[in-house]
Structure formats: structure tokens, C-alpha cells
Write a structure and sequence with these properties.
The protein has 14 helices and no strands. By secondary structure, it is mostly helical. The longest helix is centred in the first third of the chain and has 14 residues. It is elongated, with a radius of gyration of 23 Å. The termini are far apart.
Length: 238
């Protein structure tokens, strides 16, 4: 077969009464961005097998990508009802709930996904982000730490944990995380600005200005309050 479509299209033609080929062809359509055709295949798979949890999960993903969050959540829920251990369905439903600003319910889904799979970095990262937004900075840092145990080179997790540490006043730990993020992702302008704020608090004004200028060269200006405070504290701008 030349590609995934040819493979699964051929399988559908040879086994038109089996659900799996339709589901897999639908996945291929979704990977190509053709979610309307993907939904037709997932629905066909579900007509053949109404208890096909993965097809419900995939249909939910297609609805989510088409912007229909209520239908996405409904289908993720059906997938979970059929298979209560369906980790990806919890992750995806949690993400859809976040888009609806239903953060408390989203946390429950990410927590369940993390319980089912201790290596589900998405669940820990997403829960950490919500906990941070809710002001639970210590718990957020703990979740980001778990992400980094799974993926030690996850630059965004270093940045997010750095923000969590900074909110708790742990300047040294925050600085260390921003340094690691920037080493992995040298063009991360927000990380330079965040590190500049740490340098300002540590009274290292030369490095603070240096980071602000690096961020500006990358197209992101520092907060006016930080620049104003630096000008007052360091008297002159390098």
C-alpha cells in the first residue's frame, strides 16, 4: 500500500461489516485534517459495534477539532462509560473541559488519567497548569516535577515549574529552572523576561537588563513595571 489511506480503504472494502477498519481509516482522515470524513467513518464503526470505546473517543476528538465541545465531551464520556480505564479519553475530556473553563472537573479527569498511567506526562502537565491558575503553586510544581521525571528535556515544564517556584518566593530554584529552559529553548522570550525578574529581585541588575534586551530581540517586551523598577534601582540602563 502506498499510504495509510490505501491500506485501510482496502481493508474496509474487503471487510465492510467490521468496525475496526472504519475506525482506523477515520484516524487516518483525522491525521490529514479531514475531520468530517473521519466522523463518518467513526459513526459507521459505531453502528457496527455500539460498544467500541475507541471509536467514541476518536469521534469526540473529531468534534473537539471542529469546535463542538459539548458533543466532544459527550463522546469522551461514552468512551469512558464503556472503558473506565481509557486514559486518553480522560485526557481529552479534561482538555475540552478546560476550553469550557470548567477547571474543577478538568482537574478530576487529569487526576484520574494520572492515576491510571503514572507516565502520562500530559495529565500531570495539564493538571499542573490548572493548579497554577488556581493559586496552588506547590502542587503545580510537584506536577511539573513529575513531567520532568518522565521527560527530562521538556523545556516548557522547566519554565512552568520556574513560574511556580517564583510565586512561592523560591528564587534560586526558579532561576535554575529558567536556565534549563533557556538552554533547551534559546529562543524562549518569556523565559528571558521571567529570568530578568528573578535577577531584579536578586539585585543582579546587569543580568536583568541583558535578559530584557534578549527578549526584545526575540520580539517580546518586558513588563513596563519591571523596566521602571530596574531604571529606579540601577539608575542607568546598560
Amino acid at each position: 500500500w502506498k499510504d495509510g489511506f490505501a491500506l485501510w480503504n482496502d481493508t474496509v472494502e474487503k471487510s465492510p461489516h467490521k468496525a475496526r477498519p472504519y475506525n482506523n481509516r477515520g484516524i487516518f482522515y483525522g491525521q490529514q485534517g479531514d475531520f468530517s470524513q473521519a466522523m463518518r467513518d467513526f459513526n459507521t464503526a459505531l453502528k457496527i459495534d455500539p460498544h467500541y470505546a475507541e471509536a467514541y473517543g476518536n469521534l469526540g476528538f473529531a468534534y473537539e477539532n471542529k469546535g463542538n465541545l459539548p458533543e466532544a465531551i459527550l463522546n469522551y464520556t461514552k468512551a469512558i462509560e464503556i472503558n473506565p480505564n481509557y486514559v486518553k479519553a480522560y485526557d481529552n475530556r479534561g482538555r475540552s473541559l478546560v476550553k469550557q473553563n470548567n477547571l474543577d472537573q478538568a482537574v478530576l479527569d487529569f487526576t484520574r488519567a494520572a492515576q491510571l498511567d503514572l507516565n502520562d506526562a500530559d495529565a500531570f502537565n495539564n493538571r499542573g497548569t490548572i493548579l497554577f491558575l488556581q493559586g496552588h503553586f506547590s502542587q503545580a510544581a510537584s506536577d511539573y516535577s513529575r513531567v520532568l521525571e518522565i521527560y527530562p528535556d521538556y523545556a516548557d515544564a522547566y519554565y512552568n515549574r520556574g513560574l511556580s517556584y517564583a510565586k512561592q518566593g523560591y528564587l534560586t530554584q526558579a532561576l535554575s529552572d529558567y536556565n534549563k529552559d533557556i538552554k533547551l529553548h534559546p529562543d524562549d522570550a518569556p523565559a528571558y523576561n521571567s529570568r530578568a525578574f528573578i535577577y531584579f529581585q536578586l539585585k543582579d541588575y546587569v543580568r536583568a537588563w541583558s535578559d530584557i534586551h534578549k527578549a526584545e530581540r526575540l520580539g517580546t517586551a518586558a513588563a513596563p513595571e519591571l523596566i521602571s523598577a530596574l531604571k529606579k534601582s540601577s539608575l542607568t540602563e546598560p
